[in-house]
């Protein structure tokens, strides 16, 4: 079986949302609001929700603080994954990774291709693990957030998803 097994208990996780943008405010940030709504609708907790500029130090400092915190299980960023000079989210975040979740980028691009075709090539969506915290870096568009959450991340953060999911790994992330 693969998919959600409704007979199993659901285990909510605490998710921090980081919007990376030089122009968005909390009032104009549709991607962040869309992501927060979907996280809550899925039964999870939004632990933090911030907007920082496209600045490598600001991004890295925020994510570093969250992976050190005890109230965050997952970090999802949106924005700064493109190809322009100001797009620095992967450069800011990937040095924090202890392990890269290479399959995320592959699957995200497969899903994204269905929505935007070859334009998916302009995204450097990445994911990894740092200090027992899962980190997903999505593009900044609302469509990319919907694709990333609805078609990939939500299933891996649902403890009822089979044959496996990331939630069941959380207790084992500190093993040596």
Please explain how this structure is put together.
This protein is an alpha/beta fold. It has helices spanning 30-41, 56-68, 89-93, 102-116, 142-156, and strands at 3-4, 14-20, 45-52, 74-78, 99-100, 126-130, 133-138, 161-162. Strands 3-2-4-7-6-5 form a six-stranded mixed β-sheet, sandwiched between helices. Strands 1-8 form a two-stranded antiparallel ribbon. Helix 1 (30-41) runs parallel beside helix 5. The longest helix has 15 residues, at 102-116. The radius of gyration is 15 Å and the shape is globular.
| Residue-averaged pLDDT | 96
What's the quaternary structure here? single chain
Q: Distance between termini?
A: 31 Å
Shape: globular
Rg computed from alpha carbons, rounded to a whole number of angstroms = 15 Å
The largest sheet has its strands arranged as 3-2-4-7-6-5
Tally of separate helices: 5
List low-confidence stretches. none
- State the secondary-structure class: alpha/beta
Helicity range: 25-40%
Number of strands: 8
The description of the largest β-sheet is: 6 strands, mixed
What is the ordering of alpha helices and beta strands?
EEHEHEHEHEEHE
Strand content: 15-25%
Summarize the model shown.
The protein is an alpha/beta fold and 176 residues long.
């Amino acid at each position: 079986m693969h998919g959600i097994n409704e007979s199993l208990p659901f285990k909510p996780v605490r998710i921090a949302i980081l919007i990376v943008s030089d122009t968005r405010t909390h009032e104009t940030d549709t991607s962040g609001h869309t992501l927060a709504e979907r996280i809550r609708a899925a039964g999870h907790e939004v632990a933090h929700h911030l907007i920082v500029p496209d600045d490598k130090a600001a991004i890295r400092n925020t994510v570093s603080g969250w992976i050190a915190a005890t109230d965050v299980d997952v970090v999802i960023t949106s924005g700064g994954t493109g190809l322009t000079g100001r797009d620095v989210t992967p450069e800011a975040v990937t040095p924090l990774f202890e392990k890269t979740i290479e399959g995320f980028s592959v699957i995200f691009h497969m899903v994204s291709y269905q929505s935007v075709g070859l334009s998916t090539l302009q995204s450097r969506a990445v994911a990894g693990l740092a200090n027992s915290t899962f980190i997903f870096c999505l593009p900044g568009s609302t469509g990319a957030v919907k694709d990333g959450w609805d078609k990939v991340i939500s299933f891996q953060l649902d403890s009822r998803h089979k044959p496996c999911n990331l939630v069941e790994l959380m207790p084992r992330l500190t093993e040596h």
